[in-house]
Predict the structure.
Amino acid sequence: MTTEHVRAVDVTYCEGWDPQVRAAVAPMSEPAARDRDASGERYAVLLSVQGKPKALFQIHWGHRHLGLFLFDECGRRNRELEYRQLEPGRLHLMRYQEWRHASDADPEHPERGWSFTMTIDPDGRAGRELHELDGSSHTWANVPVEHRTVAKAEFGAWTAYVDAQMLGLSGPITLVPPQNPVYGPASGTAPAWSAPLPLRPLHLEALFTSGSRLASGDGRVALITEPAHAGSLHLPTGSLIAADPFFLDDARSFTATVPPGDYAVLIASMRWEGTDCEGETPAVMVRILDKPTVSWELALLPGQDVRLLGAGQFYGFGVDAGMGCFLDASGREELERLVEEVEDEYNEMDLLSSELRAPETGTNLIAYSSGLGDGSYPVWTGRDADGEVTAFVADMLILNDADALPPTVPSTAICLPPFTPVTGDRREAPFTSPGATAEFMATQISQVADGCG
């Protein structure tokens, strides 16, 4: 009778991973990591065998995030599983990514080359993208629940998410602490990682404050001038729609509503320093209350869930005709007919804003130039200290990543976190097979590559 050899896998708790030196950043003790886990703070876990990295966990329960990376033989992270907690005791696989390399000298995640991404909705519908040097393909698939949902395991139960097969090992494994650990900063200098968060607003108040200066990423400096008053928007139901005025047929109103009334619409204005030309439209505001805004959040339509957004993503309204607009939900059908009647006239306009009024309902539509033109743009909802809506701001994303320069007054408003604490959260024993999920993903890649998906 033979005894199956058990492979020892070293567990190192740390701040993260430095891909340049291929080492853990700032190792920490297990008790320190356990404390961070309990308090929802960020930490990382490295699994290695004889000094070779096998898997890396990046955990930030405060943002409901668990990321799992697997390594190739060269110490490059070549597979990623991104989990997000959507309900007590459960993690949803939001995204799977894999990279393949032509040579050992290739960087970890090359800009061009072979890559596969699967993005998975909570109901199992998934988009698959395969990128190769000679082209790409986009297909759809359905992911069974056993391959998209895992238990939120107890701290230290890392084999609930990764098994010997995924680590490239044969036989059973046991997790052990590293020999002679050294805690403290590592030689790596990589910045700390962060959980993938949706787009966050910046400088919204500054965009409507004359004299603000914002440095864009291309080196230009925008000087904010006095906002233009585009008129008064009549909201008889208090349900606001933001849309392209030429595509109102399927436009829906935001879940956040305001008291019925008439509200001023302000169009932010700017010019680029060193020129005499007016710049693009950076933002448009429907001002609801003349009170300080203490928080901003993404305006949502029914059915949209901000928890499902990835890094830098947002829900926005689409623009295909170079213009956006605001209107009340009650006037959508009548205003849609009126826009069709004057469409040629609107297409010939080169104005900052235009108003169209519906005689039957008394509602109106205020249109404006959509920044750089066609695309998708978020709307932010501002609230005061009592939670009342102070404003809706359509962000044209021209200066969203700009740096504030003097004399710009820093904003005191916060962006509300997309994730609230999970009520009745719990840890559970594993009920899925990590290796089976890895095999499922390999099958998906083969189907797409063979054109069978």
Q: What stands out?
A: The longest helix spans residues 434-450. Residues 89 and 152 are 5 Å apart (CA to CA).
